[in-house]
Automatic annotation (TrEMBL):
Organism whose genome encodes this protein: Thermodesulfovibrio autotrophicus
Matches recorded under InterPro entries: CRISPR-assoc_Csx19
Taxonomic placement: Bacteria, Pseudomonadati, Nitrospirota, Thermodesulfovibrionia, Thermodesulfovibrionales
Protein name: CRISPR-associated protein Csx19
Amino acid sequence: MLVANGLELKKIQSKVVIISEIDDLKKTVSSYFESPAYAVAYLTNEVLIGKFINGEFEFYQNKKINPDYLIKLRIFNLRQELLVWQTEEGLKGRLRIDEEGEETHVVDARQVLWGTDKEDYGNGWTRIFEERGTQLILPFSKFTVDNKKNRLFIRTRNYVHFNSETHLATYNDCRFIEFLDSKNQLK
């Protein structure tokens, strides 16, 4: 069911696998995750957006993820997401796989990304930015952005939990699915 605000409630199958310890980030991602996929790395000093293809991360200017500076990492595609986060004990993770597991309700949403201007960096990389200084470097280039109808989005999926005692519904998980333009596609 799609409502006027763009949110979509539906039933899907989904399962979760918890990864209690991650010693080798690239090896763990390769063993749990299907590529190709997008990757968003939240580091202490920057956010990197790139791709995960054939067991390798690809970020602009060949930047690398230093696990010492990693706060959170999301690797995602249409079917699954691996979320990795830093704890005092080291890296931990959650693998969410759709199309498998138990039936659950979800709400899909499009979250607008900052960026009303763009600059092509070549080789499929693009910087989107705004006058106030916010910028993102993205691993794709065939799209239009402006301060009107042409924007970029990230589609997220929010998993609904129904509490049988209180009869309330809440979100208990969220994952990234894909990047979209205003026409719900990227070329």
